[in-house]
Amino acid sequence: MSQGTLFDKVWDLHTVGVLPSGQTQLFIGLHLIHEVTSPQAFAMLKERGLKVLYPQRTIATVDHIVPTEDQARPFADVLAEEMMQALEQSCKEHNITFHNIGSGNQGIVHVIAPEQGLTQPGMTIACGDSHTSTHGAFGAISFGIGTSQVRDVLASQTLALAKLKVRRVEVNGSLRSGVYAKDVILHIIRNLGVKGGVGYAYEFAGTTFEQMNMEERMTVCNMSIEGGARCGYVNPDQITFDYIQGKDFAPKAADWEQAVSWWTSLQSDPDAVYDDVVVFDAADIAPTVTWGITPGQGIAVNEVVPRPEALPESERVIASEAYKYMELEAGAPIQGTKVDVCFIGSCTNGRLSDLQEVAHFAKGKHVAKGVKAFVVPGSERVKQQAEAEGLDKIFQEAGFEWREAGCSMCLAMNPDKLQGNQLSASSSNRNFKGRQGSSSGRTLLMSPVMVAAAAVTGEVTDVRSLI
Ligand SMILES: CC(C)[C@H](C(=O)O)[C@@H](O)C(=O)O
Ligand code: SF4
After folding, report:
1. pTM of the model
2. Ligand 1 touching residue 392 (CB < 6 A)
3. Could you tell me the distance, in angstroms and rounded to a whole number, from the CA of residue 199 to the centre of ligand 1?
4. Which part of the chain is the Aconitase/3-isopropylmalate dehydratase large subunit alpha/beta/alpha domain (predicted)?
5. Sorting pLDDT into bands at 50, 70 and 90, what band is 233?
6. Residue 339 maps to which CATH number?
């Protein structure tokens, strides 16, 4: 059993009691909600005549269904309009802060909370969304929950949970040129498997993460869940504190010093005990691309689509399903695969630094003929900051479309959808069958700069040959 890790400390500090089931009743400091998983939870509250216990601890935004072009109300999509109205109504009824479109604060739930300083070290954070693991980048214990648990948090500000084990995932060394945080997490999942983290919280440690900025750490923690770990975190350090300082909800004046010393005390102890430790070398990580239908089916961009015999027995069934669905041949290089659509955005890679990297790369280049490439900022603030820096102009001159903030083609619950079996190079986090809006649409996950490289060449390209 783990001991002395940040996870243990934060867990213990938020434990209300032990339930007869043996589960912990855990206090949830911050509850984030969006339009997809909250309506039923509010309906369940109503059925039981319950109120929201601490409305000030719940923050709402709208992200999944948001159109990124025409945002006029009512939305053209009737279902989207209904979800929007349901959320507006529930927030009003229960006095919950709602960051609506046009407020300047709307965006993907996992982008807006960190940028407003709501996400802080040592907190427990829950949201009816699997990528809530993102907030662990700050040294928070943060995880996705289901709709009935959203109800529980609304009604009691607590959850009944079994404690997770802790695996230290250590990566050491500097990343090579053309290799980004996204490649690190794709590499980890490729090696540990999409189910490898089930039952674990991942503590990302080692010099590679120590050198990362907060947005890079968020990219890594975001995809913990794709490796099966409901929660992933990085111990808070000076980089974390510098990022938070001055943000809207950051502690101010005398509270700041106190907060920093408290946050520091939560770091995993040097002699902490882990349930498991795995170690990777950053020098082994290349620009990584998925070729299949799970985020674990990744290869270095200069490798070939794995032959069945190169895979462990347990992976062959899903691999054969993947070759068929992806229309890719085992043993063929992934490089040179033609792409139809290039999507830059999502809660994995839709933050300002992602857009800065892409703009830096795309400046003076042009999207290849026949390729549709578009950039969707993760939030209204990201959009506004990017425009203040002129990034929108760089994108547009390079032939990328520049859109309004939202989840967009990460999940395609809005009008941004693949058509037929189009192949997409995507900076998002899931390549499941049909994920991007067409039941035969195909997704290759990669870093945002690799997506931009695919956009300008029209095919999967090793970005290292272009920088
Ligand atoms: C809609 C929501 C419940 C879902 C999630 O939980 O992650 C979505 O955000 C996703 O990325 O698939
Ligand atoms: S951007 Fe994608 S992964 Fe993130 S919350 Fe939206 S749909 Fe889910």
Report:
1. 0.98
2. no
3. 20
4. 8-458
5. very high
6. 3.30.499.10
Say whether both 144 and 191 belong to one domain.
no
- Give dist(CA 332, CA 334) in Å, integer: 6
DSSP state letter for 105: -
CATH of the domain at 221: 3.40.1060.10
Average pLDDT over residues 264-292: 98
For residues 28 and 371, give the distance between their C-alpha atoms in angstroms, rounded to a whole number.
45
Please give the tally of structural domains in the chain: 3
Is residue 467 predicted with pLDDT exceeding 90?
A: no
Residue 401: enclosing H or E segment and its boundaries?
Answer: strand 401-402
Residue 139 domain boundaries: 6-161
Residue 131 Cα to ligand 1 midpoint, Å, equals 7
pLDDT, mean of residues 385-389: 98
- Rounded to an integer, the average pLDDT of 372-394 is 98
Atom of ligand 2 nearest to the CA of 345: 1
CA 440 to CA 417: how far, in whole Å? Answer: 11
In a domain, 1, yes or no: no
Q: Using the CB atoms, write b or e for 231-256: b if 16+ within 10 Å.
A: bbbbbbeebbbebbeeeeebbeeeee
Tell me: do 267 and 356 sit in the same domain.
no
Q: How far apart are CA 359 and CA 126, in angstroms?
A: 33
Whether 247 is covered by a domain: the verdict is no
Of all ligands present, the nearest one to the C-alpha of 434 is 1
* Atom 1 (ligand 1) nearest CA: 36
305: CB partners within 8 A, 6+ apart: 291, 299, 323, 328, 329, 330, 331, 332, 333, 334
Joined tokens for residue 221 = 């923690």
The mean of the pLDDT values for the chain is 98
pLDDT in tens, 52-102: 999 999 999 999 999 999 999 999 999 999 999 999 999 999 999 999 999
Q: Is there a single domain that holds both residue 276 and residue 345?
A: no
Q: How do residues 106-156 score in pLDDT, each as one tens digit? A: 999 999 999 999 999 999 999 999 999 999 999 999 999 999 999 999 999
Q: Does residue 99 sit in the same domain as residue 69?
A: yes
